[in-house]
Amino acid sequence: MVTFTDIADYRDFLKDYYDRRKAEMPLYSYRMMGDKLGLDSSYLYRVLSKKQHLPAHALQAAKDILELSGRQAEYFDLLYSAAVTKDKSKKEEFFAKALALRDVNRHSLEAAELKMLENWWIPAVRAYLEMNGGVVNKREIAKNICPKITEEQVQIAIDTLLEVGMLKKVASGKLALTETHLTASGPEKRTAVRNFQRQILALASDAIENVPVEERNISTLTLSVDQACFDDLGEMLKEFRRLVQKRVDEAKRPDRVMQLSLAFFPIAKLDNGKEN
Q1: Where in the chain is the domain with CATH 1.10.10?
Q2: Which of 75, 198, 239, 276 has a CA 20 to 30 Å removed from the CA of 124?
Q3: CA angle 74, 183, 130 (to 5 degrees)
Q4: Domain 10-100 classified CATH 1.10.220?
Q5: At 43, is the secondary structure helix, strand, or coil?
Q6: pLDDT tens digit string along 76-122?
Q7: What are phi and psi of 125, to 5 degrees?
Q8: What is the pLDDT of residue 117?
Q9: CATH (residue range 112-218)
Q10: Segment 241-255, tens digit of pLDDT
Q11: What is the pLDDT of residues 53-83, one digit of tens each?
């Protein structure tokens, strides 16, 4: 299935949709899809063959059948605008905006790689090596990780990161990063991530007492929301994470490793007459 963050002609999404429906239901036709878009079958065929553009009046119907909303719908609109405009500078502008909506590339964690989530200081050592250009000085690394760790832990972190392929040795004797953003799925992976998150939240609690206020930014909000607001805030948090990751990718001369924790959870609920 084509994903919305693939940079492609907007018509690729429609063609992918048609192909998937056809595979699921062999009798699915251009006429059936055209009826949903308000187009006759021959015109739709030319659109999917990239010989015509989708008419503006069919744009919303196209997003509806593709089930696009929010950032995905905006991405589709930008690709459409870039495709139909004759103005070269506008075309470049629309594509640039579409690129800005793309997710950062993430590396999926395999089972062996979950070892790096066993202790919070393993990713911290990796981030430190990125910051200092891959120079391996275990004494300096141990001293500068906060809270401090031992040189033995630094070595364990490096060995683990090399084993799972998140670091590699280069000719100069330094270490280089191979991937940047990570994601995990599946029961075992979710458990590993949860354990890692517990460690990170404990560090956040420790930072309140042990990190000077000018070196941290910790704040809280207590909110009353309905379901629609809850859903919207969840999407806003996802978008914020994406923007943070993209901004970090643009950092030219990192001089510190920061940990950002986002926690959004219930502390009270109305039972609405139902037993909880």
Answers
A1: 112-218
A2: 239
A3: 100
A4: no
A5: helix
A6: 899 999 999 988 888 888 888 887 776 655 555 565 567 777 889 99
A7: -65, -40
A8: 79
A9: 1.10.10
A10: 888 988 988 888 889
A11: 999 999 999 999 998 888 888 888 999 999 9
